[in-house]
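Structure (tokenized):
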């Protein structure tokens, strides 16, 4: 693995499988009475968050603490950043404090890349503008592999893709070759879709984006995926459907007529869920707009992986921090 994790494109297929398999090994820690390993004792991880976050910040904090690292949580509000301090000066301050890893979330695309130029420690991108969110893609891939492998281990899982059907209950060692993933919704403003397309395609999945034309990026034609506009036509062919939040706070124009019209064309309700194959799963990176892109009964159904994704986020981020700081001495 490289020294930083800025983009899902930084990961080769072997790198991605190493992270997923390491996370599968670490998953047992969560079941212990004492959820701690001494692996990163004496290391310092800084959570540098310029945007509000709940799941991601807490997930990284829990991951670092379970590996016995010292954690410093830095919020832009109430700090020198609020007084006008630049990202570079903040980075130099962290460098002087001896941070071994900096987890950054920033509203500007490319902020994580610039930070990596200014610090000697490892930089992990926890979301930069509308660019990428690579650890979200990793935890999504981990969840897909785990859930489909478990379903493939039971007699009625014959429709699960072959590699995962034969991989064992945790999917360890398997990629996602042939898994059909449909990602639906606000691709334009969301960083999750780009990272997922890059990572899932690296792992062999067949990815299709479904969205209104106004919510697709201009350069989507260069992404390693296909694009569709009819959700009902894609659902029967999907092993996984991933619903994206409509990010109304980032919208500066009218990208669709009304919420009701968006829900009618692109929302996932019980009727649409019935179009999915019997083994298919429903994902959402959160936070959810219940009743808009996803109905409440779908979000809470047994086919939903929303809670699994949150739990797996800690495990996968443990694996990333372990490999960057503890288990990858030969990293370049």
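Design, position by position:
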């Amino acid at each position: 693995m490289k020294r930083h994790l800025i983009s899902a494109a930084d990961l080769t297929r072997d790198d991605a499988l190493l992270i997923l398999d390491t996370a599968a090994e670490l998953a047992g820690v969560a079941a212990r009475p004492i959820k701690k390993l001494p692996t990163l004792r004496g290391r310092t991880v800084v959570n540098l968050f310029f945007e509000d976050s709940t799941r991601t910040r807490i997930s990284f904090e829990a991951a670092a603490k379970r590996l016995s690292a010292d954690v410093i949580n830095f919020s832009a509000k109430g700090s020198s950043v609020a007084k006008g301090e630049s990202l570079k000066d903040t980075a130099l301050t962290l460098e002087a404090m001896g941070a071994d890893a900096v987890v950054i979330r920033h509203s500007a695309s490319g902020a994580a890349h610039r930070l990596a130029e200014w610090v000697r420690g490892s930089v992990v991108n926890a979301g930069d503008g509308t660019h990428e969110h690579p650890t979200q893609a990793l935890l999504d891939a981990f969840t897909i592999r785990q859930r489909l492998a478990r379903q493939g281990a039971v007699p009625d899982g014959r429709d699960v893709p072959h590699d995962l059907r034969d991989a064992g209950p945790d999917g360890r060692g398997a990629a996602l070759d042939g898994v059909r993933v449909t990602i639906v919704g606000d691709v334009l403003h969301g960083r999750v879709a780009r990272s997922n397309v890059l990572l899932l395609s690296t792992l062999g999945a067949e990815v299709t984006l479904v969205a209104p034309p106004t919510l697709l990026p201009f350069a989507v034609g260069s992404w390693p995926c296909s694009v569709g506009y009819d959700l009902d036509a894609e659902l029967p062919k999907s092993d996984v459907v991933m619903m994206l939040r409509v990010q109304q706070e980032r919208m500066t124009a009218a990208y669709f007529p009304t919420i009701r019209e968006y829900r009618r064309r692109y929302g996932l309700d019980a009727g649409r869920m019935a179009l999915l194959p019997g083994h298919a799963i429903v994902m959402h990176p959160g936070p959810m707009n219940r009743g808009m892109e996803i109905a409440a009964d779908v979000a809470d159904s047994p086919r939903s992986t929303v809670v699994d994704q949150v739990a797996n986020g800690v495990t996968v981020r443990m694996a990333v921090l372990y490999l960057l700081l503890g288990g990858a001495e030969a990293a370049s």
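Reviewer-requested clarification: The chain has two domains: 8-132+311-326, 134-305. Residues 328-332 have pLDDT under 50 and may be disordered.
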